[in-house]
Write a structure and sequence with these properties.
6 helices; mainly alpha; single chain; about 100 residues; about 65% helix
């Protein structure tokens, strides 16, 4: 995939330095590095600049974010789905550790 991206950047007239920077950022994003840390590494003055420039590369994280929010805010897991089965078991275990005077979610 990096080869195809590099070829497309070269056809667009990107310099070697720019190609290296874009590929490096793509790899950091792929590895799950937080955007703030990427901004710091690149010397950007704010995370906004990083997200405006590279935000489209974070698209794959939309699904993960949605799944996390579902787990946090009450989507009922599908017991027929292996992921759902794991979530049901996790919730059962979590109820064992509820603080006194608090209700389990």
């Amino acid at each position: 995939m990096a080869d195809a991206a590099e070829q497309a950047l070269r056809r667009a007239g990107a310099s070697d330095g720019l190609i290296l920077a874009i590929l490096r950022v793509g790899l950091l994003i792929h590895e799950g590095v937080h955007p703030k840390k990427i901004a710091e590494r690149l010397g950007h003055s704010s995370i906004k600049l990083t997200m405006d420039t590279y935000g489209h590369l974070f698209d794959g994280s939309d699904r993960e974010s949605a799944e996390r929010m579902d787990r946090l805010f009450g989507r009922k897991p599908d017991p027929d789905d292996p992921q759902g089965q794991a979530e049901v078991e996790e919730k059962k275990r979590a109820k064992l550790f509820v603080m006194p005077g608090r209700k389990a979610g």
